[in-house]
Prior knowledge:
Blueprint: H1 3-9, H2 22-27, E1 45-47, E2 50-52, E3 59-63, E4 70-75, H3 79-92, H4 98-101
Antiparallel strand pairs: 1-2, 3-4
Amino acid sequence: MSLSVLRRALPKASASIRPLSVSAARYNPDFPEPMIRPTPKYTQLFIDNEWVNAVSGKTFGTYDPTNGKKICDVAEGAEADVDLAVQAATRAFAQKSEWRQMDPR
């Protein structure tokens, strides 16, 4: 619906109806600031509540789809890393584990 149609349909409110410009959206405190080139904090595997390198030491590149440039290298999880994660989860679900005793909040 165009702005002129809205103004005719709502004559009393038409004074307050105006298109949102790009500059208004950019400086509106309700909109979050865009992240132009975010820097990754973590590139390792999260296992047993720790950031760890892959057992094999292998990594793979992650690329920005907008320009094809490499962002960073990320740890490449394999079977051995999955085994470590399963062992950590099994320990966490044990009846008297610290994780089970934590307050849910």
